[in-house]
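Fold it.
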Amino acid sequence: MEKHYQIILKDTEELVYESMRQQIMDENNPNVGAFLDDNHILDAKYTIYRTASMIALYCNSDSSLYRDEALLKRIRLGLGFAKKMQHDTGLYDYVTCNFNSAPDTAFSIKKLMPFFFYLRDIVGDKKTKEEQEIFDTINGIIEKAAKGIMTGGFHTPNHRWAIASTLMECAKIYNDDEMVKCANRYLAEGIDCNEDGEFAEKSAGNYNRVNNDAMITLAEATGDKKYEEYAVRNLHMMLHYWEPDGSVYTANSTRFDKDRLSYPTDYYTEYMLMGQRHNIPEFYEMCNTIIDICQKKNMLAPDSLIYFMWYPEWRTIEHEGLYGNPDYHVFYKNSGISRNKSGRYTYTAMSGKSNFLYFHNGSIKMEMKVAGSFCEHRAFKAETMEEIDGGVHLHQTMHGWYYLPWTDEKRPATSDWWEMDNSKRDKKMGPDMDIDVWVTESKDKDGIDVRVKTSGVEGAPWRIELSFTGATFLENGHLATHLTGNEALTVKDDYVELSNHKDTLIVGPAFGAHRFMEGKEDSELRNAGASTIYFTDYTGFDHTITVRNKRSQF
């Protein structure tokens, strides 16, 4: 991948020059060497990441900054700040969240590991005095950190694998059996990757690749290739998670990346490594696609120069062609998600989510909810989803209930409502509301049909909520208006065309029996920055809404 190498080298130089303006160089400043992030936060992890990119250029003979004395000074100061911020325990703080944090320490030294192995194994005895100094500093940070990581503690599922994989890697470096024993205590819980290839946090925008990295490291450190199988499985699944605009589908995530615009740059090294080790052509094609996305979006290429230095054979691997992203209809039952691609668009149905349906044509994204108020329920969240001919069927039964007065045998001693354990009260159950949704593709493959049926409760004012981003104009038989985002419109009849200069979505037929769009207290807010259209009716109703992508009809 010589072309990739040249692009990544050039973009790493750009990244480093951008970073230079953020580094504190005043030697009278107690934080000299640190890099200020965009919020001017001083954090060891951020400084380690920025310094690492500088080390790659300093050691790379193709770089214009190869063995540059001014850059070496910055590297020394950056590593010096990293050493200063390391507690006596070996742990680092992640100052916006976690303190004396084993997982964040693991993430920090994971960034340094490729540099450690490059200088130890590739450069070896040919290290200059300055490179030996860099290596010794990195080695000292890693060894001290590993002892701190052994003290443990984590918050989230992926933290376990960051800790375990780092300890296994350090155990191999320092021949420490106690690190192995500590790592095995985490691994004994079993890897939370289901047969679909999805990890527990369902975080396609961030933590899937964090987990993949940990699995690859575990395989390398232990020699047990079963760990790589999890990464390969996830990377195959991720082939169905790209949207028509090159972004990653993130709406199913349980973490901060949910619904964030994210691109797959950080998956590059994983697709390269697993493509190379398992001879998977489409993984190489994804590497080509990732670089192509970066070029088209004017984004910096992945910060992975050190991997080309660590694995010099990467420069000789050539594979032509982008990932074809063929049409697919996949149902990941364990993950509760149906992902589908037909030509120019994708559509996605999910269980357990109020925003249960997405449609994306590359420039306009539509999100659908079925919302209203019924007892404590505020929106449809499918409890079950099953495949049907041409699509999926989602279902939820919403149970109504009321508390009953305490019986003599259960009545608490207190009369203070907030001290009572009201979960122990008897309840009067009912009525129940059933909501069924069928999502099927149109016979002409130019969109989808969404049938929504409510039953069991009569007269409740519910709504179909359609949120659009990327559309700049709305028109139907009664109205034509520009869209800037944050509009809220109830459309009473006819079909609605939502368009921009590239494409048009046609949605309908509309219905508007009431104007109760906001719902009761605790109802979800509208999507900020999106134009929202409401179709409204009283339960029980049975409506089919069609979504058609106009360019798919040509």
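DSSP finds twelve helices and 20 strands in the chain.
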